[in-house]
Amino acid sequence: QKEVEQNSGPLSVPEGAIASLNCTYSDRGSQSFFWYRQYSGKSPELIMFIYSNGDKEDGRFTAQLNKASQYVSLLIRDSQPSDSATYLCAFRSGGYNKLIFGAGTRLAVHP
Amino acid sequence: EAQVTQNPRYLITVTGKKLTVTCSQNMNHEYMSWYRQDPGLGLRQIYYSMNVEVTDKGDVPEGYKVSRKEKRNFPLILESPSPNQTSLYFCASMASGREEQFFGPGTRLTVL
Asked: Which of A42, A44, A97 has its CB closest to that of B31?
């Protein structure tokens, strides 16, 4: 069974700090990795995707991928209370539209 | 407005009573999926479709059926619902060659 492991949290960080969210995955063959954000009672929305080892930055968000360690992370700089949500890690497994999601990490940013 | 719509948003039913949850997208997307979300288990893919009349099983297809007769619609059918199908269901669509899945607002289903 292909899996994604995430710490369920909650991860609590003060406003303005860096939040670090981590994810490990089991499928060594996977090439595509995603971070989705889900506010309470809402549907998931894509934040970032990453294919290559290393870092990918988009505004306050940085995704980091290490395929050798089967590890992907999301850094949120200058965290804001509006970043408080559950963050879902996912990878593509097999078919183009076949995604495996983790259970998510709940992030709480306090003023 | 570009969107994925699901109906109903909330449904309480009884064991064995057939039901259909509809999903429609107005973005002309080729790919569509159904997920269920349960506490501690995250999103699990039930079925997905690559285009009209092309569907495939996800990780948890047992007890569900789907059809894709039109590009915009992808209904989820529970022929004989059971209490273990009580969950939050999401439909999603994605354009070919793109990475972002667009999710519907969700359908909360309770099977008594």
From this structure: A97
